[in-house]
Each structure stands twice: as C-alpha cells, then as structure tokens.
Amino acid sequence: MKGFLQRVFTRRKETPISYDEAKNMAASAAANVRGALAQRHDTRPEILYFLANDTEPSVRRYVAENEATPVQADLLLTDDHDDDVRGTLAQKIASLSDGLTANETDKLRRMTYQALEKLARDQAIQVRQVIAETLKEFANAPQPVITQLARDTETVVCGPVLQYSPVLTELDLLEIIETNTASGALSFVSQRRNLSERLSDAIAASTDTDAISHLLGNKSAQIREETLDQLIDRSPDIPQWHEPLVQRPALGPTAAGKLARFVAQNLISVLERRKDLKEDQLAMVRKVVERRIEAGEFVVPPARAGKGEKASAKGAGAKEPKNVASEHAPESNETESYQQALDLHAKGKLTDARISTAITENDVKFARAALAVRAGIPTEAVAKVLNTHSAKGVVSLAWKAGLPADLAVKIQIKLGHVPPGQALNPRSGNNYPLSEDDMRWQLEFFTGMATVGLR
Predict the structure, then answer these.
(1) pLDDT band at 254 (very low <50, low <70, confident <90, very high)
(2) Gap between the Cα atoms of 274 and 247, Å rounded
(3) What is the pLDDT of the chain when averaged over all its residues?
(4) Count of CA atoms in the C-beta half-sphere (13 A) of 142
(5) What is residue 362's three-state secondary structure?
(6) Residue 372: CB partners within 8 Å, gap ≥ 6?
(7) Residues of the chain above pLDDT 70, percent
(8) CA–CA gap between residue 205 and residue 85 (Å, rounded)
C-alpha cells in the first residue's frame, strides 16, 4: 500500500510533457536528463524500450525500476551486463509475479514469467537473492521458480524460501534435506513454523548439529517423543543442544531425568523451575542432582546446604567423589520394543528384512532393540556404538547381528549417523570391509565402555 501511494503521489507531481519533448529528452547528451525521462510513469513504452539500450547504467536502472516499462524491455534487461540493473529489475518483476504460472496463455504474462525464471537463474548471487527475498512469503509464487531458488547452492538465496515459503510442500522439503549441498541450508528448514514430525525426523537423522540445534529451539516444530529421546542420547557431547533441550516443550516421561545427568548446573535450575513437569519427573531430576553433587560435579546450592549438606562438594571435608558412571546406566531392557524383538526372534521372525523395514520407517527404538537381540549383546552396548558414530563400530555390530554387509551401510547412515562419505561399503561379493579379528576387537571395546558405564 505504501508503495502504491508513493507511485500515485509521484505521478501527481509530474508535469505532463509532449511526445516531442520526450523524444528530445531521450536524445539528450546529458545522462541525468535521460534518467529523469526513464523514471517518469507517463513515458511512452517505445521510448522506455529505447532507453533500455542506453549506454549509461543508471538510465537503464531507472528503466528496470519503472513499472510503466513494457515487458519486452524488461525481458531485454534480463541480459544486461550490469548486475545492479538486473538486481533492480529482479525486485520489480518478483513483486509483480504473485499468481504467475509456467502455463500463462496471455503473451505479456508469459513474458513476465520468462523474465522472472531467467533472473532466478542469474549468475549474480545478489540478483537471485533479491528474487528469493521478495518471493519468500508469497502464497501464490510460481512453484518452479521457488523450487529452483530452494535448491540454490548459496544460502542467501535458498535460505529465505526454505525458511518461509508456503509454496514448498513436505515432499519438496524432504528431497531438499536429502540433496541440498549448500552449507547451512538445513538450518533454514529447521526454523520453519509448524514443522511436521516427518520433517523433524529427517533433520534429526542428519549429522548437521547446527540444524538440529535450530530444530530443538523451534517451539512450533513437532518432534516425536522417540526422536527427542534419540537426540538426548546423542547430546552429552554437543553442548549447543543442551539449552534448547532443557527448554523444549512437552518433555517425555524420562527426558528430564536423562538431561539432568549431563547438562550444566545453570540448566538444571531451568529444569527444576518448569511448571509442566510432573512430581515424579521432578523427583527424578532431584535424585540425579543429589548424586552429581555427591560426586563432586556441582557446588551445593545454598538451599540444599542449609539442610545440613556441605557448602561445596569439593575441598576439605567433602565426601569422596563417587563413580558417576552409574548415572548413565540404561533403563530396563524390558521395554515394549525390546520385548517385541525378543518375541519375534523366538519365532524366527526377526529377519534381515524386518530390521531393514524398521530402519526405513525410522522406528529407531525397535531397530536398536533388534540389533541387541540379534547380536546377543546389551542394549547399552548397542547405544554406545551408535551414539559414538563410529563406522567401524557400527559395521562390527551389524556383523555380530548376522546381517548382510549392504544392510550395514544403511545402519551406519540411518542409525549411527555416519556421514555417507565416511561409511564403510562392502567389498566384492557383499563381504564385510573389516577382518573378523578387527570387528571382534571393536565389539569388545564398545561392550567394555558400556560395562564401565553400568558399574
């Protein structure tokens, strides 16, 4: 509306000129005279087309900006050698493109779409960026142009549409998550409003810690309880996730207790102040905090010290630190998923195909339980292997579970979050890429780590 009013008042201030006067101005040797003519809203289309070929970039820029400029001249300016001219044109064309489609029957609208499409592929980043910034929230922006911008390799171009464009569908975004190579692109998707569970799962399955941090901080994102639990399991060594996890709405029944095991003392107080936690969840947090205090990790808060506890858990008179590894002891294996895996195994139905399907469907809890049952090792050891993202460790786990080597690649990427470029592929004949001695050593190492954590 503001732009519309400005154009109205600008037109009122223009003193009408004759066609001959306009031709004389267009032929003037003074660039400022030709520029003044190029800005006028009553300049005839053929004169504006003539000025689109002017030798002075500033004059062509005024032509590109002028909404009275004919589409034929706009199309001509898409090839202008001056980036600023094309950038100015991009802003005007994009602002006029709401509702355009690739199948326009009207000649002028079709030419406008062609100009827009061409500018969206412009070699200059700033031109493509202008298009993206202008179209990012248009509900009726041309879908092919939006998807082109969303796949751009420059984040200043793809970022605005990935974060805001309502034109992008869930399927578009899932494909982009899998294929976009622009650094930081995933973080823009993570910040979209009302992100679906399916998209959240895809982001959580990635190795992009910044994107996952944005996902956790996105209060409107829908994250399944199982997905959040997996991220909590991965987060002890990723401090940037701790605060958004602690402040994440609707924590699951055991999430607060798990977080209390490793987050910093200031974040513990955030957990304790949450009004949505039930009493049993708060009790679990307090229990973990007390043990960390006894272990010497925290300074005793004044409120607790007043109850007869020591003012500091370290120094003279402090209790001898306990082994805090017990705080990382896993919960009982008798979970629904583990019991399901046991039952299927007893019936001979815990097959390679069943495990592969679980991984494809992102049923991570069952897939982990199935690996533990098939390999005959504790679920804590399976979790340790997967959470350390060790390609050799995951391959060894798949081997121990008696799975084919090609399925081990899928397990590395989907469950172990090993970057695809670092995954170990089968040797010829679908053979495992490591020696049996090496894989036994890997399993002994991780099983030993899990055993220490249980003591």
Answers:
(1) confident
(2) 8
(3) 83
(4) 26
(5) coil
(6) 333, 338, 341, 378, 379, 381, 382
(7) 87
(8) 43
Q: Residues 2-13: pLDDT tens digits?
A: 443 344 444 446
Q: What is the mean pLDDT of residues 305-322?
A: 37
- For tokens 């690649």, what's the residue? 409
Could you tell me which of 418, 420, 424 has the C-alpha nearest to residue 390?
Answer: 418
**Chain centre to alpha carbon of residue 264:** 25
Mean local confidence (pLDDT), 64-84: 94
pLDDT of residue 179: 83
Distance between CA atoms of residues 23 and 56, nearest Å: 17
Highest mean predicted confidence (pLDDT) among 180-194, 401-415, 426-440: 401-415
Residue bearing tokens 């829908």: 222
Query: Has this prediction a pTM greater than 0.85?
Result: no
CB 385 within 8 A of CB 446: yes
Q: CA 215 to CA 224: how far, in whole Å? A: 12
Question: Any idea what the Cα angle at residue 117 is, between residues 116 and 118, rounded to 5°?
Answer: 90
- Spatial neighbors of 283 by CB under 8 A, at least 6 apart, are none
Count other C-beta atoms under 10 Å from residue 11's C-beta: 12
Question: What is the distance between the alpha carbons of residues 84 and 124, in angstroms, rounded to a whole number?
Answer: 10
What's the pLDDT at 228?
92
Cα distance between residue 204 and residue 58, in whole Å: 49
Q: Map residue 194 onto helix, strand or coil.
A: coil
H-run or E-run covering 160: helix 155-164
- Tokens representing residue 1 in the block: 């509306």
Structure token pair of residue 39: 């800005």
The set of residues, in sequence order, having a beta carbon less than 8 Å from that of 287 and lying 6+ positions away, is 257
Q: Which of 126-135, 184-193, 290-299, 432-441 has the lowest mean pLDDT?
A: 290-299
Beta bridge partners of 427: 431
Task: Compute CA 107 distance to the chain's CA centroid, rounded to the nearest angstrom.
Answer: 40
Q: What is the pLDDT of residue 315?
A: 34
For the record, the structure tokens of 121 come out as: 């592929």
Contact 251, 277 (CB under 8 A): yes
Going by C-alpha positions, the residue among 225, 237, 254 that lies closest to residue 330 is 254
